[in-house]
Amino acid sequence: MNLTQEDLTRMELTSDRILVLEDPPGSTPSGIKLLSNDHKFDRTGTVIMVGPGIDPIGMPLKKGDKIMIGQQAGITITADLPDEEHGGMMEVEFQLVRLSGVLAVIEPDNQPTGE
């Protein structure tokens, strides 16, 4: 599925779904480069958007949290977004994941939740 920037701003996630901007493979969240296939078991990324969650759990994640997701978790969604560095548009891949596909919160975003 290929979305536009407008589609992303209008999108409302349902249930326990999370939109994640995945970190590039082959590096850790702190930027350390991994050799060979050391990175194949964990995928990390930043939460971009969350759904309302499911009662009674709610949604324990919020925008900005750094998370680890399962290898087979989620579906890939692409969006054409402006490339501010080079001009024009660039294709960005996001993962749409259910809460059960999140293995761990690596670094919670401790900013106030009001936007």
Summarize the structure.
With 115 residues, the protein is mainly β. It has one helix and seven strands; from the N terminus they run E-H-E-E-E-E-E-E.
Describe the protein.
Helices cover 5% and strands 39% of the residues. It has one domain (2-107): 10 Kd Chaperonin, Protein Cpn10, Chain O. The protein has one helix at 5-10, and strands at residues 2-4, 17-22, 43-50, 66-69, 75-82, 89-98, 102-107. By secondary structure, it is mostly beta strands. It has a 7-stranded mixed β-sheet. A hairpin with a 6-residue loop joins strand 5 (75-82) and strand 6 (89-98). The protein starts with a strand and ends in an 8-residue tail after the last strand. It contains 1 helix and 7 strands, in the order βαββββββ.
Helix-strand topology string: EHEEEEEE
Distance N terminus to C terminus? 28 Å
Count the beta strands.
7
Question: Which value, in Å, is the CA radius of gyration?
Answer: 15 Å
So what's the overall shape? globular
The fraction of residues in strands falls at: 35-45%
Going by CATH, the architecture would be: Roll
Task: Count up the helices.
Answer: 1
**CATH superfamily heading:** GroES chaperonin
- What percentage of residues falls in helices of 4 or more residues? under 10%
Q: What is the mean pLDDT? A: 84
Tally of separate domains: 1
**CATH domain fold name:** 10 Kd Chaperonin, Protein Cpn10, Chain O
Main β-sheet, spatial strand arrangement: 1-5-6-2-3-4-7
Described by strand count, sense and barrel closure, the largest sheet is: 7 strands, mixed
CATH class: Mainly Beta
The stretches of 5 or more residues where confidence is low (pLDDT under 50) are: none
